[in-house]
Specification:
Layout lengths: L1 H43 L2 E7 L5 H15 L7 E7 L8 H9 L5 E5 L4 H7 L5 E5 L19 E5 L5 H12 L5 E6 L4 H13 L6 E6 L3 H9 L6 E4 L9 H10 L4 E3 L11 E4 L2 H16 L16 E5 H6 L6 H4 L4 E3 L1
Helix pairs in contact: 2-9, 3-4, 5-6
């Protein structure tokens, strides 16, 4: 009896000890598993975001893919992000506000704007929904944000360009093809970014011994006429931003057929066959913009998030195209290329 009594007493003490430890064990389990539970909750909760841009393929798709990849690497699984894509062509800009309002009714928590031409329309549709936009120009000089450090309002941005890079591309074009003298540049005068770019190219041309032949394009017809006016020209300089962005593939095809060297701001599905490109990669910029969007989704004040600018620029040279147009690339220029397509 005594033995049984001691065992019963021992068991009782263990049960009592476990009961007393249960709250502590519960707290420990909460501390250990809370991050996992939070991550699972984040995966299960759908986060709607809106993407607005022109219907430029494949650039639109490449930029959206870059954004999704960036969000994924920051902890947002594809099943957790619902991307509402809205493509608005310039001909429909008068009705853009109602289209954007329809997008906002999808409860988008943040808007990602490809370009800046619809920024004011987006602001008119809502002064509250956070907006992250990407632009090739200086958003301060264009009056789009108050400053780079504190953009203000419900807006911040990523730039994928410095306007002065249009001058640098003109310099590279001269190095790639030293004999050139007349360079055609087609740009959209309605947008601040290409106006900044053409100004930089205009300033750089005389020092390089080049004549810059400027052509304005407000419509596809203008752009086609600009390409047709390349008879007598020696090269083509792409000015990023505005309407011509949607016709990179066509521009590449025409200049290659004319056996002329051309340089663009970024390598993409539309420009991969061009002789060269120099600048930040659009998809990578969208990937990096995911950092801003995640900060916003976590409660940061959009207008207090500094505008970010690119730090890496890539020089791409296509030797297949060089051979096609009968151009021998100087070895010193080829040695500086980040990517060579053979």
């Amino acid at each position: 009896m005594k033995v049984i009594s001691r065992q019963s007493s021992s068991v009782s003490k263990r049960i009592l000890a476990l009961c007393l430890m249960r709250p502590a064990l519960g707290l420990l389990a909460t501390l250990l598993f809370a991050p996992c539970l939070y991550a699972q909750a984040q995966q299960l909760t759908e986060t709607p975001i809106g993407v607005i841009g022109a219907p430029e393929e494949p650039r639109f798709s490449e930029i959206v893919a870059g954004l999704k990849k960036g969000l994924g690497q920051l902890g947002y699984a594809p099943t957790a992000i619902v991307v509402h894509e809205t493509k608005i062509v310039r001909a429909e800009e008068k009705s853009a506000k109602s289209v954007i309002e329809a997008l906002l009714r999808q409860k988008a928590q943040v808007l990602f704007l490809i370009g800046s031409r619809l920024l004011n329309t987006v602001r008119e549709a809502s002064a509250d929904v956070p907006v992250v936009f990407i632009t090739p120009g200086d958003p301060v000089a264009a009056g789009l944000v108050a400053s780079l450090a504190r953009p203000g309002g419900n807006t911040t941005a990523m730039t994928f360009e410095f306007p002065e890079l249009s001058g640098k591309r003109l310099e590279l074009l001269k190095e790639l093809a030293p004999p050139i003298r007349r360079v055609v540049a087609i740009y959209d005068p309605r947008d601040a970014s290409p106006r900044q770019g053409i100004m930089a190219a205009r300033q750089a041309a005389p020092g390089l011994g080049l004549t810059l032949v400027e052509r304005e394009a407000r419509s596809r017809e203008d752009f086609v006429q600009g390409l047709q006016s390349m008879e007598g020209a020696d090269a083509y300089l792409s000015i990023p931003g505005g309407l011509p962005t949607g016709f990179y593939r066509e521009a590449t095809r025409v200049v290659n057929a004319k056996r002329l060297p051309a340089i663009f701001h970024s390598r993409s599905g539309s420009t991969v066959d061009a002789l060269a490109s120099y600048g930040a990669n659009d998809a990578q910029v969208a990937h990096d913009a995911a950092r801003l969007m995640v900060k916003i989704l976590k409660g940061a004040n959009t207008g207090e998030l500094p505008v970010e600018r690119p730090t890496k620029f890539e020089l791409v040279i296509n030797l297949k195209t060089a051979k096609q147009i009968g151009l021998a690339i100087p070895s010193n220029v080829l040695a500086r290329a980040d990517t060579v397509i053979r």
